[in-house]
Structure formats: structure tokens, C-alpha cells
Amino acid sequence: LADEHGAVWAVGERECSIQRRHQKVIEEAPAPLVERIGGDLRERLYDAARKAVSAIGYTGAGTVEFLADETGRFYFLETNTRLQVEHPVTELTTGTDLVAWQLRVAMGEHLDVEEPGTRGHAIEVRLYAEDPSAGWQPQSGTMHRIEIDAQTHFGPLDRPGVRVDAGIESGSEISTFYDPMLAKVISWAPTRARAAAILARALSDAALHGPTTNRDMLVNTLREPTFLSGDTDTGYLDQIGLDVLSAPLADESTVTLAAVAATLAEVAVNRERARVQRSLPAGWRNMPSQYSHKTFRTDDDVEHEVRYRCTRGGSVELPDVADTEVVSTTTEQVVLSHNGIRRTFDVARYCDDVYVDTAGASVHFRRPPRFVDPSAVARPGSLLAPMPGSVIRVAVSEGDRVTAGQPLIWLEAMKMEHTVAAPADGVVSTLAVEAGRQLAVGDVLAIITDEADNDSETEHSDAPTPQETSA
Fold first, then answer.
1. CA separation (Å) from 312 to 232, 272, 289?
2. Per residue in 406-452, pLDDT tens?
3. Are 93 and 121 in contact (CB under 8 A)?
């Protein structure tokens, strides 16, 4: 912060090493590197930043960025003459309202005599509508519900907790025309370990009903030993691996119980809508009968069938789920006792999408259709649009031979470029798009047929027809 009267403040430092595609994912203050190296590194950074700002007579808020190494050497990168996305971690650790100071400086006010000190540790994560496990594919659609347990929005924290800076709310539409960031979720606590734990729990307990997000990756990162040690750099995500960091928070047992909860909540809905014998449990029989069942499908296309039967006494039998009893059921909440431990599952439905939230994990199910529309089934070899966006380049034509991994089509979505490659060797038998076309998820881009099949078709088409032979 610098005013018109020559005063310059160095308002703390931040570290933003964890990045994907050169965009920051996690930011924190103070910087773990500076804390680890110690010595005069912090003062040298402050001094360099003050000199850079003073040299150009800058006023207002700004950020001077450096690249640092493990020896304590640092190198100037750039100056951002504005507030940055991660400015909340500075506000929480210094108690300084940077937005207010921008306005005060612009009105000609003096900065106070002393620079603000720092207290505790703050960590910010960027919650994106994207799928890290699928090459960071951006997502779009309706955010039916977004609820994160937080003490405050856009303000300081007077005790350990979480702040949320969001530009969306439940019911907002996530389009393809803007950056896929949904919200900034920031924690503050006296220590870094506590700040990470508080933030991880707030995210894992959040209700996020809508497009796929990077929530699970963020939580796994905040709990990962290397991150917690503070020994991270710009290669962190590649070093640990997205297969590890993007692993679902819900383990196999939780998914199974969530499917049971989804089933029982849906049964409760059916009974609530029943026109006759509404007071009786669904499927109730005076004598034992066959099991009823419902099927749900997870995002990784795994089907979970739940068999159940209401006994004569009104309890529910679950033959495929051991050591599990139904404690209570409503249309929106199911309480189960599993291995003697009670767990509460909140269930929400949006057409064929079912979201089940429990402590520390969430599961998204889809109801599989009872009957499949043949016209909705893609032909073998079809390349489908992995995300909504626009075609910016097509590198092949119909009839071209392609090899596995060869880039064929380039898409642009949410300010990022994505390549669609050939899944196997073959021939482009159909090309369904051209540059400039807008796409929805699942639109057919092209059809790649096997070379052998294509050659067979060619040979068959060249053979004389019976009429030609007889003539």
C-alpha cells in the first residue's frame, strides 16, 4: 500500500506455489518458505517490494511477485497493480481492510505511521467448477445448492473460522463464458496446521449440488503430509499425483450407505405421494415376500443396487448391507446405525440427480433410465464433447487416417483450451463439427472407425452388384 505522500507499507507476504496450468489453487499467509528459511528473508522481500513501488511513484494497493528458491534467493517476476484473488489471506492475518484502504488512499488520506503486524495463519482455496481427475475439464450447469459453514462473508474473523467470498448462490447458473471459479474459501487460525484442518472440514462438510467441483482435491491436499509440512513448490500437484489428490472423500462403505439412504428417502417420497394406504411402509406385506430394489449410478458409472423389504413389524431388512439398521427415515434425511455408530445422511433430489451428504463426504448419484432411447446411444467410435464450449480448430477431414493420441479438434471453454485426441488408430468416417460451432456436453464431434472395418467396407463397395454381374 502506498499513498500520495510517499509512505509505503509492506503488508505481509503470501505464498502461492500450488498451481495448475499456471493458475493458483491454494494461497496462504505467511509464506511457509519464509517461515522455514527464517533469517532476514522476510525483510529482504519487504525491502525489495518497497523499493520497486517507490521507484515508480506508485499509489494504491498492489502486489510485487517474486520467485524464490530453497536457499533464500528470490527473483522479481511482476507487479500487479491491483488487488489479487488471494488478498483475503492478507486481510485476515494483518487485520487490514485492503479495499477500504484503496478508497482512502484514492481520496488523499495518509497511511498510518506504522505498518500493520501479522497474526496467525490464513489459507485460501479456490473452489472451481472443474474435474481435476479428467484433465481439469471445466464444468457448467445449475448450482442447485451451495452451502459452506462459515462465520462471515467478505470480512475479518475475530476467532478461528472460515470466510467465504462467493459470486454465486444456490440456483446460480454456471456458464461457459467465464472463469470456472465458484468461490474463495478462506480459513484463519493461530497456527497453520489448525487453519488447514478447519478449512478441510468446512469443505468436506459443504453441500455442493451441481456441476463437478475440485472440492475433493482441495480437501485431500489440505490433509496431505507434504503440504502440511510446508515443503511445497510449483510442481506439487504433479509430484503427489492427481490420482492421489483427486480420490473421492467417500470410501466404498460410505457410498454403499449413501445408496441405502437415497433408496429409503425415495421410498418415503413415494409413500408421501401415495393416494391409498399412505400410512403403510412401501412394499409392506403381512407375510414375507420378495425384496424390492432400487438402482443408482455414481459419476464413475458404477451401479449400486439396494434391496430392501419391510417386515411385518415395520422394520426394514437390508440383506446386502451387514450390521446396518434403519433408525429413522424422512424424505430428506435418513439415519442409519452401522457397526453400532449412528450416521446421518441428508438427501436432495433434482430430477434424476440425487445428492447424499454426510459428515465429511458427499455422494452424487443418477437414477439410470428404465428404458434407453436408441437415438441417444452414440455410435461405436464416436468422439463426444467432454465439456460445453466452442470449436476453435479442426485438424482433420473425413477420410483421413489418424493414429492413437493424435490431436484432432481444439475446444475453448472458460478461457482455457482443450484438445480432443484420437482414442485409437482408425479413419475419420464422420466429421460432425466445424470451427466456431458451440457445443454441449456429449455432442458428437467425429466418428473414428477401425481401419480394418473401413477397408472391408471399401472392398465391399467396389465389388460388382448382382445386377452388374447378370448384365
1. 60, 20, 10
2. 999 998 876 678 888 888 899 999 998 899 888 887 888 999 888 65
3. yes
